[in-house]
Structure to design on (318 residues):
């Protein structure tokens, strides 16, 4: 079912959803299942599965010789979506990236999704590869998430990349896109980033999921500003519970976000990561409760591995 229909059917009740990351190549999928299982009690209407950018690995070819190869260390997004969908009887949402894919390859991914009965896709640009100064699309690939939304919208109208095929069926994907309550780091200003978001919605995006934020005011202001410029699709808040001390430095660096002083102080006062995890759970519970009181349609959690903290939050909130 489409995310927008899940929201309509919930009749104002806030829903719980979460996002998982595929295992590293070579690891068993069972660990992923074991982390999903306890969260099914909270009846997520869907689970997102991320896609990782490709990266360079160096293969030892003998004394002093290293061969550089491009590989995707966490492949299998669409396969995992299919396996989870059938194992847990839940909708799954693959993240489809511009980065690392030609438009042709993207079409194949979308056709696979169609055959698997996947109704929603999240359209994202992806970040630059680790060695790149800035994002570079593949030759023949999409440049911005907007171009990807365009491609999916065209496919929904039955317009494949090449016209010389017999068609008797069109896709009907519900499309999610990313939004940034604290602005995307490459954008020159909050307002210009918001205009870019509106372009994605005008091109056919049906809903928005936000980047993580730790101060709800940032989300409320963002939703207000989005409404003012005519963005009228659901804007789903994305919440990440902090779990390790390192998050104090890496989350602001990677996601260019501000952490509230109270959270910083609480984390700095922790003697170990166990204590940080507790702080993260408590902070996310308070954030979630306030968001629910404000009537958000859904709270989406970034799980990134172990799910016990998300379970603890969901037990208190849903
Ligand atoms: P875009 O919407 O294309 O925006 C990128 C930048 O370009 C912004 O600064 C925007 O303002 C600007 N811009 C947009 N259009 C134009 C234009 N026409 N001209 C000039 N500038 C323009 N990354 C992954 O690799 N895998 C994932 O699975 C993944 N999942 C995510 C899920 C969520 C909910 C979120 C919020 C992010 C996720 N990301 C993921 C990260 C995302 O790929 C990065 O934040 C990326 O840098 C931007 O992606 P986007 O889709 O927002 O890009």
């Amino acid at each position: 079912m489409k995310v927008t229909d899940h929201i309509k059917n919930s009749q104002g009740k806030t829903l719980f959803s979460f996002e998982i990351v595929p295992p590293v190549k070579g690891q068993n999928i069972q660990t992923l299942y074991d982390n999903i299982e306890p969260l099914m009690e909270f009846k997520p209407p869907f689970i997102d599965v991320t896609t990782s950018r490709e990266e360079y690995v160096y293969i030892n070819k003998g004394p002093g010789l290293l061969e550089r190869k491009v590989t995707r260390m966490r492949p299998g997004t669409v396969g995992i979506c299919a396996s989870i969908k059938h194992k847990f009887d839940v909708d799954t949402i693959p993240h489809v990236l511009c980065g690392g894919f030609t438009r042709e390859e993207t079409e194949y991914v979308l056709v696979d999704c169609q055959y698997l009965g996947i109704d929603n896709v999240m359209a994202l640009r992806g970040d630059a590869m680790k060695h790149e100064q800035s994002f570079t699309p593949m030759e023949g690939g999409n440049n911005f998430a907007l171009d990807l939304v365009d491609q999916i919208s065209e496919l929904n109208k039955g317009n494949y990349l090449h016209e010389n095929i017999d068609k008797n069926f069109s896709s009907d994907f519900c499309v999610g896109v990313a939004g940034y309550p604290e602005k995307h780091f490459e954008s020159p200003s909050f307002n210009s980033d918001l205009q870019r978001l509106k372009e994605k919605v005008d091109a056919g995006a049906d809903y928005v999921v936000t980047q993580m934020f730790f101060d709800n005011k940032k989300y409320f202001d963002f939703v207000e500003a989005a409404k003012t410029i005519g963005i009228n699709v659901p804007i789903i808040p994305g919440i990440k519970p902090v779990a390790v001390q390192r998050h104090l430095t890496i989350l602001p660096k990677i996601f260019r976000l501000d952490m509230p002083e109270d959270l910083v102080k609480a984390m700095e006062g922790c003697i170990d990561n166990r204590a940080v995890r507790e702080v993260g759970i408590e902070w996310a519970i308070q954030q979630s409760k306030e968001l629910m009181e404000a009537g958000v349609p859904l709270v989406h959690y970034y799980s990134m591995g172990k799910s016990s903290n998300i379970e603890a939050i969901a037990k208190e909130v849903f």
User: Anything to note?
Assistant: The pocket of flavin-adenine dinucleotide is lined by residues 50-51, 53, 95, 97, 124-127, 144-146, 178, 184, 186-187, 193, 196, 200, 209, 211, 238 (CB under 6 Å). The mean pLDDT is 96.
